[in-house]
Amino acid sequence: MNSGFARRLRTTIPRMPRSLPISGLEIRNFRCFERLRVDGLTRVNLIVGTNNSGKTALLEAIEAVVSDMSPFILYRASVERGESHVRSWGSAGEDHEINVRHWFHGHTLAEGTSFSVRATGERERFVSRTIERVPSDAPAPPFVPGGFQITLERPGMRKNTVTAGLPLLPDGSLGAGPPSTFTGFGALLHPPVGFMTTQRLPVAELTRLWAGIVLTPREDSTIAALRLVEPTIERVAMSGSGDAASVQVLLRGASSPVPLGTLGEGVSRILAIALQLASSQGGFLLIDEIESGLHWSVMPKFWRFLVQAAREFDVQLFATTHSKDCIEAIARLHREDPGLTADITVHRIEAGKTDSVRIDARVIELAIDGEQEVR
Amino acid sequence: MILDKNYHRLFVEGQSDAAVVNKLVLRRLGLDLAQNRIVSTGDRDEGGFEWVRGQLEAALVTKKLVRFGAVVDRDAVSGKPDRWLSMRSLLSSHDVDIDAPPAAGMLATTAWGARIGLWVMPDNVSAGDLETFLESLVPTESRDWAWAGEATTRAKTEGAEFRDVHARKARLNTWLAWRDPPGNPYGTAIEATQLRDSSPVVDTFVDWFKRLFIDP
C-alpha cells in the first residue's frame, strides 16, 4: 500500500474501533473439546448450544487464557464443578485438592497429556498444561521422582519458553490451598477477569464489589441498571463485611429501606452483573447462564444496558444462555438500535464440531422473524 | 415421514404460494406440511421476495436447518428484475455455486452437509411467476379459459385497473370467479379439484420437492 493511499484511508474511514482484546480462540484437548475454533468475537458475545455442548467449558477456556498471568488457572472452575475435595490430611482443614484429569479431553491422566488455549486479538495469549513425569533428579519433596507433575509454559524473554512444574499427588490430585486464595483472584489481575456462575452472589461479595464503586459515577450506572427490573429503586446502601454484611434498598415513597433479599432474584442478579461489570473495567467478564433470574420482559432493556455498560467500562463480555428470550431481545434491540447491536454476536457450539457458528445481530433478527431456531 | 420445522423449511413469497405448495404436496405426496408449519411465508405486499432471500441467508449463516429451500418468482418480465440473479449472488457468497437454474429445480449440498433447494417460478427457465405456473393446472377441457383471456383483455380496454404485469393473474382469477363455488383462492381451488394437481411442470416441481425434503 503506498503512503498516499494509506493517508486517504485514514482520512476517509471514520474512527476505527481499536482491536478487541480477544477476537478468536483455538482450544485443543480441553474438557469436552478435542478441538474448537471460535472466530469473529465482538465486545459482547453470547454462547449458545444444547446441553453438554460445552458452553461452560468454553467460558472456562476463555477465563483461563485471559488469566494467563495467574498461577491459579482453572482452580475456581474445578471447585465450582465439584472436581475437588478438601484435603484429608495436614493441618489446614480448608485446603482443596483438585483432580486435574477433568481438565483434559477424555479425562485421562497420562504422560504427555496436554491441553492448550490460544487467543488472538490485540495481543496473542496462550495457556497450556501438560502432564509429565517428574525427572529423577528433581528436588523431593514435594516432587516424587517418577510421579506425575503438571507443567505450564510461559512465554519468556526473546521467545524462550519458561516451563514450570507443580507436583501431583499419587492419585493425580493437585494441592490448591484454600479457595479464598484463588476464587477472587481474577479481580486482582491486570486486566481484571470476573466470572459469574448461576449461584447468587453472597452479600459479603456484593458489599466488597460495592466498596469499589460507591461515590463514583459507576454507582449511578449501577442504580440505573437496577431500575430496569425495579423502577422504584431510589438508593442502595451496603454496610458491614463478612457475615455482618448487609444490602439495604430504599424504594421511592418508602420511609425506610428494605433488605435486598425482599426484592426478588432479578434485582439481585442485575445488581451482581452491574457490579461485576464496573469492577472488571478494562478487562473481561464471563457470565454463565446470563438469563438466570431475569424475566423475559426486561430482556431488551437488559441487553441495551449490557452493551452500554460493556462499552463504558471497556469490558469484553462472554455469556452463555439457553434462553430464547435472550435471542429475541437481541433481534428486537437490533430493530430499535442497530448501532448498539453491532457489538453483539452469538456463537453456537455443537458437540463434536470443531468450528463454532457465528451469527451477528442482523441475521439474528432475520432468523427470529422467520421463526428459525439459532440455539 | 415427519418433517420438523426446526430442521426442514421451505420459504415462499406469500400466503397464496404457501397454500399452493401445501395443497399440491398434500394431494401428491400425502404429506401435511401445514400441520408442521414447514412452509414459511412472507408478505407479498411488503417485499415477499426480499423476505425469502433474508430467510435463506439466515439459514445459510445459522447452519441449523438440514433441508431447506425457497420458491420465488423469477419475474424478469415488464421491466421487473430477474430474481434468479439476486439468488445466485446470495448462494455464491455462501459457497453454493450454480451457473443457471436447472429445469428440474436447483438442489445443492452446503459445506456443512445440509441440502438446499431453489425453485424459480414458473419452471426455473422461463420468465414469469406463480400464476404462470398455475395456468398449467387449468383443465384442458375448460372451454371458458380462452374466454377468460378475451374477457380480461376486453375489460382492460373498458377501464379495468389491473396493471399489464398482472394480466395473467387477472385472467386466472377471472376464470376462478366462474367456478362453483366462485372465487376460491388458489390453494382451495386445487383442493376442490377446480384446478388439477398435475401437469408436466407441476410434476417436475413435486419431484423437486420430494428430492429436497424426502429422498435420502
Task: Provide the descriptors you would attach to this structure in a database record.
heterodimer; A: 375 residues; alpha+beta; 6-stranded antiparallel β-sheet; 6-stranded mixed β-sheet; 18 strands; 28% helix; 26% strand; B: 216 residues; alpha/beta; 5-stranded mixed β-sheet; 8 helices; 12% strand; globular
Q: What percentage of the residues of chain B does DSSP assign to strands (E)?
A: 5-15%
Oligomer: heterodimer
Strand order of the largest sheet of chain B: 2-1-3-5-4
Q: Which percent range fits the helix content of chain B?
A: 40-55%
Topology (SSEs and partners):
The complex is a heterodimer of chains A (375) and B (216).
Chain A: H1 3-12, E1 24-30, E2 33-38, E3 44-48, H2 55-66, H3 75-80, E4 84-86, E5 96-99, E6 114-120, E7 125-133, E8 148-155, E9 161-167, E10 173-177, E11 193-196, H4 203-211, H5 217-229, E12 233-239, E13 246-251, E14 258-259, H6 265-279, E15 284-287, H7 299-312, E16 316-320, H8 324-336, H9 338-341, E17 344-348, E18 357-360, H10 361-369
Parallel strand pairs in A: 3-16, 3-17, 11-15, 15-16
Antiparallel strand pairs in A: 1-2, 1-6, 4-5, 5-10, 6-7, 7-8, 8-9, 12-13, 13-14, 17-18
Helix pairs in contact in A: 5-6, 7-8, 8-10
Chain B: E1 8-12, H1 15-29, E2 39-41, H2 48-62, E3 67-73, H3 83-93, E4 106-109, E5 115-121, H4 130-135, H5 144-157, H6 167-177, H7 186-191, H8 200-213
Helix pairs in contact in B: 2-3, 5-6
Could you walk me through the main structural features you see in this protein, from its secondary elements to its overall organization?
The complex is a heterodimer of chains A (375) and B (216). Chain A has ten helices and 18 strands. Chain A is 28% helix and 26% strand. In chain A, strands 2-1-6-7-8-9 form a six-stranded antiparallel sheet, covered by helices on one side. Chain A is an alpha+beta fold and 375 residues long. Chain B is α/β, with parallel strands linked by helices and 216 residues long. In chain B, 43% of the residues lie in helices and 12% in strands. Chain B contains eight helices and five strands. Chain B has helices at residues 15-29, 48-62, 83-93, 130-135, 144-157, 167-177, 186-191, 200-213, and strands at 8-12, 39-41, 67-73, 106-109, 115-121. In chain B, strand 1, helix 1 and strand 2 (39-41) form a beta-alpha-beta unit. Chain B is globular, with a radius of gyration of 17 Å. Chain B starts with 7 loop residues before the first strand and ends with a helix. The mean pLDDT of chain B is 94. Classes of the chains: A alpha+beta (375), B alpha/beta (216). The A-B interface holds A 348, 357, 359, 363, 366-367, 369-374 and B 5-6, 9, 11, 37, 40, 51, 54-55, 57-59, 61-65.
